[in-house]
């Protein structure tokens, strides 16, 4: 354990670990605060292991749309006049009128990713890319732990970099969930890596793909493979009798409202469990009705033509997988009868969802100061600060691993803008009670960030972790 930093050593007000949409939104909130109140500016830096910003690159499928309104972007629910809104992005890209003419609340996923990159470019001075955090060490002072050392690198003989902080914000994101007996190979992978893995397949037209899963990603993967490989058979395998539609109705969407977080946090544990179960069909293992209709229409048209290559193996599950040099062998069992069939495919894609990363795994010795609930999950306060022992003077904030405490929006974009505003207010209050977080002034909004050079030169009018339901 380190001792208190020497006089003159830089101690950041906040170090962010991870730089997906959640910590990007937090960086924007800090940037706007610093412009509005420079006398109370926060010293912040964000550390990201990727070499550049990226969010679900493997599923940036052409034609795929977001499942969340563009108004639930990085800022609008916190500050509708923010310069970092999706509408500001469209205006700067020269597509505002064109987007309005689409008459849709839902951007293309590729477009929304470009928006995220555009926003990340505007706060690039706060980010260190290619910086993988390997440890977070407590620094003890006279009254307890008054700083944290966030270590980057230092493995395999590499020289470590150390950033000291009074607060850390962990946005570790989510990781692909695979069956326990699954070992990814060149022909077996999670849909998270779909586009990259497809590009690595041997030359030649594939003859068959097998897609396992019944949620939105599984349906999108099935649709994409069927459309992009016109000579290929695509077999969708899922244990349900059919895809289940997502509930995107107005009343159900209230579970994503900011005030629903307050209600959920205050609720008894049994009520929390019931609410999560009631509203699973807004987010988990469900598919947009329009996509369900599209896939059914394709299967029916193929039956009419007598050339069926989109096959729905419903009420089935995969019981055995073997990987060979030239194919994958999958044994699929029909659940009602136990009948089995063999499928030989060019690739097997598991679209089996994601799971949150335990944020305490990143903390090293600092995790010993953090508390867990009786269920073993991290204990989190209403302001997204991890509950700690009394001698921990630093704030440890988490974004993403809070569904058990804050509700279903934990890993979604829906509440991101509001959540980071709450985290910023908490950090400011802990730094100095007088530094209460206030909305940006009109002048600061008008000033906004300076234009960012486009990757191809000129002004930024050209292109270029949490799920994207409401």
Rounded Rg: 24 Å
Largest sheet geometry = 5 strands, mixed
Shape: globular
Percent of residues in helices comes to: 25-40%
Distance between the termini: 43 Å
Give me the CATH superfamily of the largest domain. Answer: FAD/NAD(P)-binding domain
Contiguous low-pLDDT stretches (5 residues minimum) are 437-465
**How many individual domains?**
2
Strand content: 15-25%
What's this model, at a glance?
This protein is α/β, with parallel strands linked by helices and 470 residues long. The chain is built from twelve helices and 20 strands.
How do the strands and helices of this protein lay out in sequence?
Blueprint: E1 2-3, E2 11-12, E3 14-17, H1 21-36, E4 44-47, H2 86-93, H3 96-102, H4 109-122, E5 127-128, E6 133-141, E7 144-152, E8 161-165, E9 167-170, E10 174-176, E11 188-190, H5 194-200, E12 208-212, H6 216-228, E13 233-237, H7 258-266, H8 269-278, H9 289-305, E14 310-313, E15 316-323, E16 328-334, E17 340-345, E18 347-350, E19 354-356, E20 395-398, H10 403-406, H11 416-431, H12 442-447
Parallel strand pairs: 1-6, 2-8, 3-4, 3-9, 4-5, 9-20, 11-18, 12-13, 12-18, 13-14
Antiparallel strand pairs: 6-7, 7-8, 10-19, 15-16, 16-17
Helix pairs in contact: 1-11
């Amino acid at each position: 354990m380190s001792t208190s930093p020497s006089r003159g050593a830089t101690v950041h007000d906040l170090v962010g670990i991870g730089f997906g949409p959640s910590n990007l939104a937090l960086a924007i909130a800090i940037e706007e605060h610093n412009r509005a109140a420079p006398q109370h500016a926060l010293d912040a830096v964000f550390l990201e292991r990727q070499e550049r910003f990226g969010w679900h690159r493997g599923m940036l499928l052409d034609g795929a749309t977001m499942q969340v309104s563009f108004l639930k972007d990085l800022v609008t629910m916190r500050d509708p006049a923010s310069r970092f809104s999706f509408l500001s992005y469209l205006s700067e890209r020269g597509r505002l009128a064109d987007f309005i003419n689409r008459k849709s609340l839902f951007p293309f996923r590729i477009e929304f990713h470009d928006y995220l990159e555009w926003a990340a470019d505007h706060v690039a001075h706060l980010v260190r890319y290619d910086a993988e955090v390997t440890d977070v060490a407590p620094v003890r002072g006279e009254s307890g732990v008054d700083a944290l050392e966030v270590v980057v690198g230092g493995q395999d003989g590499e020289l470590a970099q150390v950033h000291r902080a009074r607060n850390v914000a962990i946005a570790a994101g989510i990781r692909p969930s695979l069956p326990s007996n699954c070992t990814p190979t060149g022909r077996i992978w999670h849909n998270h890596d779909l586009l990259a893995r497809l590009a690595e397949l041997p030359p030649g037209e594939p003859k068959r793909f097998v897609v396992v899963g019944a949620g939105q990603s599984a349906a999108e993967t099935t649709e994409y493979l069927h459309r992009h490989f016109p000579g290929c058979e695509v077999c969708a395998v899922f244990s349900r009798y059919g895809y289940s539609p997502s509930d995107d109705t107005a009343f159900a969407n209230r579970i994503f409202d900011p005030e629903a977080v307050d209600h959920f946090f205050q609720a008894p544990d049994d009520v929390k469990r019931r609410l999560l179960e009631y509203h699973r069909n807004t987010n988990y293992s469900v598919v947009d009705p329009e996509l369900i209709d599209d896939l059914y229409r394709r299967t029916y048209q193929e039956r009419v033509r007598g050339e069926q290559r989109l096959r729905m193996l419903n009420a089935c599950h995969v019981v055995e997988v073997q990987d060979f040099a030239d194919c994958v062998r999958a044994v699929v069992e029909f659940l009602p009868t136990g009948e089995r069939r063999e499928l030989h495919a060019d690739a097997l894609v598991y679209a089996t969802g994601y799971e949150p990363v335990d944020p305490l795994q990143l903390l090293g010795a600092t995790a010993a100061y953090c508390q867990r609930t009786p269920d073993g999950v991290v204990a989190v306060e209403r302001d997204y600060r991890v509950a700690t022992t009394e001698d921990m003077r630093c704030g440890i904030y988490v974004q993403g691993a809070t569904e058990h405490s804050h509700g279903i929006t934990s890993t979604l974009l829906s509440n991101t803008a509001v959540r980071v505003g709450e985290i910023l207010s908490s950090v400011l209050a802990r730094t100095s009670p007088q530094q209460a977080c206030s909305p940006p002034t009109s002048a600061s909004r008008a000033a906004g960030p300076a234009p960012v050079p486009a990757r191809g030169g000129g002004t930024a009018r050209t292109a270029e972790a949490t799920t994207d339901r409401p």
